Amino acid sequence: MNIKKILVSQPKPSSEKSPYYDIAAKYGVEIVFRPFIKVEGLSAKEFRQQKVSISDYTAIIFTARTAIDHFFRLCEETRVTIPDTMKYFCTTEAIALYLQKYIVYRKRKIFFGKSGKLDDLIPSLTKHIKENFLLPVADVHKDTLSVLNDNKIPYTTAVMYRTVSNDFEDGEAFDYDMLMFFSPSGIDSLKKNFPDFVQGDIKISAFGLATAKAVKDGGLRLDLEAPTAECPSMTSALDMFLKKNNKAKK
């Protein structure tokens, strides 16, 4: 089957240099960016029900820019003033730099890792073990917190946002030859929006073991999986897949 139209269940790339655009041009395919899920912030009332007082904490651990947005939003809505002495620990430099949207970066104590994993932050967290750490998370978050527990880091999680289905509107086209998913929530949303979905010739790809498992558990056929040793990214896997199934444009 020749792939002509692909749905990537992620937001449209902010840069025109995205590999997806190169792939679209190379194979003459149409790539549509349409998230199956979206992030929704908790209200101040919902947050207060957790009985977490932000003022009690001296350091914040951020694993995503989304967490930064909703942390500072809730601070504003609950009228919490963040002291200049607050310390920030981020899993990547990009996330750390995003703090500039809300604070004077050069005047704050900010630490960051390289790989995006909490493991990278352990040396910095251990050096500041006397701090009281707050970790903003989504309602469903990855089970990566064991590394904090193993290293006896004193932290508290606070749910500040949730992932919900980004429902399709009546009459919205769904004429794709391939669907690309990046989280189990995306599969849940597919089932919710299209309870009578029949895969047929439609190809389904998944990024990550959890997403691949969700595809199979949902009774669907998994046609493409990443990352692999040969294809570390979804775009490299897609390029290889289309190379086998489509002919590159001359």
Summarize the structure.
With 250 residues, the protein is an alpha/beta fold. It contains nine helices and eleven strands.
Fold and architecture overview:
The protein is of the alpha/beta class and 250 residues long. The protein has a domain at 40-163: Rossmann fold (3-Layer(aba) Sandwich). The protein is built from nine helices and eleven strands. Strand 7, helix 6 and strand 8 form a beta-alpha-beta unit. Helix 1 (19-27) packs parallel to helix 9 (234-245) and helix 7 runs parallel beside helix 8 (209-217). The model has no long low-confidence stretch (mean pLDDT 92).
Largest pleated sheet: 6 strands, mixed
Strand arrangement within the widest β-sheet reads 3-8-7-4-5-6
CATH architecture of the domain at 40-163: 3-Layer(aba) Sandwich
**What fold name goes in the CATH topology slot of the domain at 40-163?**
Rossmann fold
Structural class: alpha/beta
Q: Rg from C-alpha positions?
A: 21 Å
Helix and strand sequence: EHEEHEHEHEHEHEEHEHEH
Q: What is the first-to-last residue Cα distance?
A: 20 Å
Shape: elongated
Number of strands: 11
Strand content: 15-25%
